[in-house]
Amino acid sequence: MRISAAPTNSEESLSSPGRQDETLLSVSSAARLLGVSASSLRAWAAGGKVPHRRTAGGHRRFLKSDLEQWLAERGAELPQPPARPPELVASRTLPLEEVAERIRQTVPELLDAADSADAPGAGSSRRRRARRRRGRLESQVEGLAHGIAAGDLGRYLREAEWNGFRHGASGSPGEGPIGDALCLRWAVDRVVAPELDGRPTAELRSLQRTMDRLVVRVASGMAEGLQARRRAADG
Asked: Measured between alpha carbons, how far is 128 from 184 in angstroms, rounded to an integer?
């Protein structure tokens, strides 16, 4: 249903205290929630047509419950986000902030362990490849730590899958991203897992499952990339 910006109560009555346990939304956040532009919502608020509050600094803020009631009075409700396809490999995990911090503190050790798991050999070209690989792994470790701390690895796993797809679709050697994922999984087992002795077993299992998911997503992306390349060649 289209939202109508019909007048409502005055700004003074809307700025009265109450429901302080709710988070106040900014103009942009409230606009996304309503499915309208920020400029439209700002104009409605300036005209006293939508319930809002003022901060001490004079900024407009909105309560979700106020917006829900405002819409209900007009026979509408908050737009629902589009349904997302289910993840083939779950991306939610235990939020492990201490484990994530430990990963950040041991980045050099993790990279050294990954290097030792797959030594690139001698020669200037191989040394250059090793430096590029180390840079890729360092970026992956930071993404891993962020996802583990938040308990949501969705972005990290999607990037890993895209990396595999890109290599498959371009015809690049698949051992690159898959090998990186396997070496990083081995490095985490060697460097970080021993630090979890004495901590809940669930934390270690969660970390191990995370690394397994990484390998699966890279391989899945690689397979999709190869299929896309084959379809393009056949067409």
From this structure: 19
Per-residue pLDDT tens for 59-100?
899 998 999 888 888 877 776 654 545 555 567 777 888 888
Asked if residues 50 and 70 have their Cβ atoms less than 8 Å apart, the reply is yes
- Coil, helix or strand for 194? helix
Q: For residue 223, what are the contacts with CB-CB under 8 A and spacing of at least 6?
A: 164, 168
CA distance 200 to 215: 24
- Residue 171 and residue 227 in contact, taking contact as beta carbons nearer than 8 Å: no
Greatest alpha-carbon pair distance for the chain in Å reads 75
Query: Sheet holding 24-25: strands in order across?
Result: 24-25, 60-63, 53-54
Count the Cβ atoms, other than its own, within 10 Å of residue 193.
15
